[in-house]
Amino acid sequence: xxxxxxxxxxxxxxxxxxxxxxxxxxxxxxxxxxxxxxxxxxxxxxxxxxxxxxxxxxxxxxxxxxxxxxxxxxxxxxxxxxxxxxxxxxxxxxxxxxxxxxxxxxxxxxxxxxxxxxxxxxxxxxxxxxxxxxxxxxxxxxxxxxxxxxxxxxxxxxxxxxxxxxxxxxxxxxxxxxxxxxxxxxxxxxxxx
Length: 193
Description:
By secondary structure, the protein is mainly α. It contains 6 helices and 4 strands; from the N terminus they run ββαααααββα. A hairpin with a 5-residue loop joins β1 and β2.
């Protein structure tokens, strides 16, 4: 394979046949980005919490485009449904009507969460609070939407009727709550954010 195919949605060696835009797990990417940001902030003596709060409102917009890409590719579709807006996806070998969960995610984890974070960005004066609210908000919305999304084929349901995505989102919610409480306590102790 050609190295450019990592970045391009085409098979260069096969007449530029469209192959799709595939990404990595969101939770894993978030962990790596946070670790890299902490290292970057330490190296350049920057406040991680201020940087995280500055950048986090843009994340849901990027996520929106990622989920729209999933919808266009017909991947990461929802569970079988009978709702009138259910859709057929070409990658579904059983060809059954399914929830367009990618669109639910684009709307609620993307646009809706962006609007909330953007409206709060100048109102919250505690560094790290906006980042923690993102973790809580994203985790909560994704946890709920996972009930409509088909679990990863290789994993299925991991704990009872919960998917791996729901377990990871539950951890995100808890972690976001802990960070929020700690940042609030520190701001009260110091008297500033």
